[in-house]
Amino acid sequence: MKKIGVVLSGCGVRDGSEIQEAVCTILAIDQAGAEAVFMAPDIELDEVNHCTMEPTGLKRKVLVESARIARGNIKDIAGIKASDIDAIVFPGGFGAALNLCDFGQKGAAASVNPEVSRLVKEMHSAKKPIGAICIAPTLIATILGKEASPKLTIGTDPATAAEIEKTGAKHLNCEATGFVVDKENRIVTTPAYMLAGRITEIYEGIGKCVKAVIEMT
Questions:
Q1: Domains of the chain
Q2: pTM surpassing 0.85?
Q3: What is the pLDDT of residues 185-202, one digit of tens each?
Q4: Which positions are annotated as active-site residues?
């Protein structure tokens, strides 16, 4: 059974992984007959109240919060190597651009969590497929933009696309139910809730993205 790494960034759209995107990703992996291998960095996040969408001033652990989505079956990303998995997928949610990296605050000048960066570079060097959903392609652009000039999409938002282009990556506009494949770099991206208005739209796009990732393994 193919093992597909799923990198989570917390639990909740404003301070972690977008839960609906994460669940659609997991479902698509399972439907393809593959196994999801959950992981997250063991770092702190700034908590957001998801009723008011305002910061609480409190801290939570990314790994502990991500375990909620993974039903406890999760590992610290620091212990995962490219040889452990066949492909890797990053669901969206602001955590991908705040906790895994700080693209959400610094744009193209962002820095990346070192263990996340290490694993993405290992996967890319090993020519193993990488999937990124919603805002998560900004993470991939930050890591691989200068080195590999990957082709990515976050939908049609011009401001975010402009920052992606500054990293050296190439942004392509894409509808919510579509996906972009960079065959050379073995990277697949889809806009999900960066553009979609309904869960059916994100499920269609994520399903196509995950299927393309697994077919590349």
A1: 3-216 (3.40.50.880)
A2: yes
A3: 999 999 999 999 999 999
A4: 134
